[in-house]
Amino acid sequence: MKKILIFLAAAALLSSCAQDRSQVLKVYNWSDYIDESVIPEFEQWYEQQTGEKVKVIYQTFDINETMLSKIEKGHEDYDVVCPSDYIIERMLKNDLLLPIDRDFGDTPNYIDANLSPYIRSCFDKIIGSGKNANDYSVGYMWGTTGIMYNTKYVTAEEASTWEILRNPKFAGKIFIKDSARDVFSQIIIYLRRDDLAAGKVTLDELMLDSSDEAIAAVESFMKEVKPLVAGWEADFGKDQMTQERGWISLNWSGDGVWAAEEAAEVGVDLQYVCPKEGFTVWFDGWVIPKYACNVKAAKYWINFMSRPDIVIRNVDVTGYVSASGAPEVLEAFTDDSYEPIDLSYFFGPEATSVCANPVLYPDKADIDRSTQEHDWGDRTPELVEMWSRIKGDNASGMTVFVVVAFIVALLAVAVIGRLAKRRRNAGRKPRRR
Q: Cα 424 vs. chain centroid, distance in angstroms?
């Protein structure tokens, strides 16, 4: 029965593609993850390059699995989408992607000319059942997972280790991302720190450990953390940090930069650090689903998004960091207010001493302590069940208060906040992994 339904879904998509879609490009991307003024520019550029017209239908999602479900079930014939690293891995394994052709005729190939060598090497590590992810996906944005902390209450030394999450000194002042995958990865790194130091295991090997023993160890650690947690959050944690209701947050670098900028305006000093034991990096990338109807326009879209001037505009608006290692990008984000750091891993050998924001572009010494997550495959239910047991159904009074207060505040300042964010070009949405 399942095979019949899959066949019917595929047949329906093939039928929709039979209705000429050569002048329509359906794009599915994260919310607030692009400078939307580049969309009509792409339409004009595409006609200039190919002599053909195209109209972009642009839609957004907030959860990886929502996007994936539509692709898997054949409910939508999207031409180009932007999933996260582990979802790209799952889509490769399940044969849901088409290879990205780099032949653009007389149009420059911005993809291969500008993609950072670091991003390329990370995509090489994506497990795709014998397929190289660089042939099926192109990096778009990336970042790290670390600790955001308030320097008024937390020292740099205390924030330098994942151990801080179970320090009773900070009870009721800790926010944790509601993301089982990200939390598991950081904690297993911390718990195996001695084995890592002794060379008994590597960071990359740890990211492939979904054993019952690993799950039990992380669950035990997080159950010690739970009584100290003020909230499990997907979005409101950074706001609580800027208001000093929280002092510590397990968070992503994009949120770290946003929160630090917001907090500075009210005299609060927030910093972001990648703990010494190790941490994970995350990536989002463009792919062409196997049911795409306009593959030609899709590959031109990816090429256009890799053009340095478009990259810079998208970064300016979204606040995230591009996968592009183009010289123009390096120049655009060099800032003499920061100390020089080694970014040769990302921009090439000429970038050994660059003044840049180390939260957005970590120093090579920090990146050497990083790794990347993978799809858990058939073990995903075990990960979800572990997370459910850790959080439980009994939200603390503080959590309820924070959620209610956040909702009320959100309703009260929605319009003003939206306009202010646009003015600051800081509309950074969390990646709900």
A: 21
295 Cβ contact list (under 8 Å, min separation 6): 79, 98, 101, 288
Q: What single-letter amino acid sits at 146?
A: G
**Which residues make beta-bridge pairs with 115?**
324
- Tell the residue number behind the tokens 């995509």, with chain if given: 123
Cα Rg of the chain (Å, integer): 22
Residue 143 CA to residue 254 CA, distance in Å, equals 7
Res 393: pLDDT: 52
Contact 249, 165 (CB under 8 A): no
Instruction: Kindly report the number of other CB atoms within 10 A of residue 57's CB atom.
Output: 12
- Taken in order 111, 116, 117, 120, the sign of the CA dihedral is negative
Q: Give 26's strand partners.
A: 57
In terms of Cα–Cα distance, which of 165, 94, 89, 85 is closest to 433?
Answer: 85
Domains parsed from the chain with CATH numbers: 2-117+125-141+286-320 (3.40.190.10), 143-281+377-424 (3.40.190.10)
Beta strands in 154-303 (DSSP E): 174-177, 229-233, 248-252, 270-273, 279-289
Residue 365 identity (one-letter amino acid): A
| 8 Å CB contact between 162 and 186 | yes
86 token code pair: 């582990």
Q: Which residues contact 90 (CB under 8 A, 6 or more apart)?
A: 68, 375, 377
CB contact at 8 A, 152 and 312: no
pTM of the model: 0.87
Contacts of 125 (CB under 8 A, 6+ apart): 204, 372
Distance (Å, whole) CA 56 – CA 403:
37
How far is the C-alpha of 362 from the C-alpha of 321, rounded, in Å?
Answer: 11
Instruction: Report the distance separating Cα 383 and Cα 215, nearest Å.
Output: 7
Q: Which residues of the chain have pLDDT under 50?
A: 1-15, 394-404, 406-433
pLDDT at 16: 55
| Nearest Cα residue to 307 out of 29, 57, 46 | 46
What angle (nearest 5°) sits at the alpha carbon of residue 141, between those of residues 102 and 319?
A: 135
- Give the other-Cβ count within 10 Å of 109's Cβ: 12
Lookup: tokens for 369: 């302590």
3 state SS of 232: strand
Q: Tell me how far apart the alpha carbons of residues 362 and 276 are, in angstroms, rounded to a whole number.
A: 13
Tokens of 266: 């009210």
